[in-house]
Amino acid sequence: MTSTVTPDILEMVRASIGPAPDDFDLPLPPSNLSVEEEREHRKRELAAAFRVFGRLGFSEGVAGHITARDPEHPDTFWVNPFGMSFSQIKVSDLIHVDHSGNLLHGKRPVNKAAFCIHSEVHRARPDAVAAAHAHSPNGKAFAALGIPLAPIAQDACAFYEDHGLYSDFRGVANDIEEGRRIGVALGEAKAAILQNHGLITVGQTVAAAAWWFITMERSCQAQLLAMAAGTPTLIDHDTAVEVRNLTGNPVAGWFQFQPLWDQIVAESPDLFD
Questions:
Q1: What is the value of pTM for the model shown?
Q2: Which ranges carry the Class II aldolase/adducin N-terminal domain (predicted)?
Q3: Buried (b) or exposed (e) across 237-258, using 16+ Cβ within 10 A?
Q4: Would you say 190 and 203 are in contact if contact means Cβ atoms under 8 Å apart?
Q5: CA pair distance 3, 8, nearest whole angstrom
Q6: Is the four-CA dihedral 79, 82, 87, 92 of positive or negative sign?
Q7: Which of 129, 133, 159, 190 is at 20 to 30 A from 68, Cα to Cα?
Q8: What pLDDT is attached to residue 136?
């Protein structure tokens, strides 16, 4: 496997570093892994992302799913078992399914909505390794407004001119046509707001997709609070683009998930079982 870290992105990451020792070690996404190593790495990140989502209260009954494309068979993906708590998912619990709906590995069924949405999102976005969708409280509330996120804070700039809006909600996603429409609304962006539904994010790593969802949920909360208090002041276009380029690139997404990764791995000895 080759790394997605390009020199320009690496330079932007270095631009965020203050005083440091000469021999400092900066964590970066692993590269040059074998197919087997890459598959295991993605599955570990996926299980960890579910635990983090559970910790942050993003679960809503059996709703919500995160997927990771298989590195050897890109028309297949790994996903959470239907009806299992995010907070209890281990690597061995993950389900493997292809885009045609065939179960390749696993002991439990797949959420039909997860298959209908994610199979089409992965099909529409061959560049995306992972996709995350959950019915998080602030995401649901903000999605009901049918408006995009505004650049009212530094964190929200990660999504400036880089998220779509799906305004054609037709009920629970029980057919692949709904997934296709979501894929179209997502376009080439890292995220989309699904009106009357919630949020969806994609990333070149599982960690990045998970982080985009987390910070988008919080950005929705911030804008809801600001709008309730008054009229938010927007960050100007040039500044918003500059901040997006620094904080909204793939490596920045992966990197910002690392403190959560370290915490959940340390607190979950059964995670990689």
A1: 0.93
A2: 44-224
A3: eeebbebbbbbbbbbbbbbbbe
A4: yes
A5: 13
A6: negative
A7: 159
A8: 97
The pLDDT tens digits of the residues spanning 41-98 come to 999 999 999 999 999 999 889 899 999 999 999 999 999 999 999 999 999 999 999 9
Structure tokens belonging to residue 36: 């087997």
In the numeric block, the tokens 């892994």 are attached to 33
Question: Given the structure tokens 């989309």, which residue do they identify?
Answer: 192
Token pair recorded at residue 198: 């919630």
Tokens 């938010």 label which residue?
A: 232
Contact 201, 190 (CB under 8 A): yes
Q: Which two tokens stand for residue 76?
A: 């297949």
Neighbours of 211 (CB within 10 A): 26
CA 119 – CA 216 distance, rounded (Å): 22
Tokens of 89: 């998912």
Return the domain boundaries, the chain.
33-267
In the chain, which ranges are continuous DSSP H helix? 7-14, 35-55, 112-124, 137-143, 176-186, 206-229, 237-247, 250-267
Token pair of 134 as six digits: 């959950």
| Class level of CATH domain 33-267 | alpha beta
Amino acid at 152: I
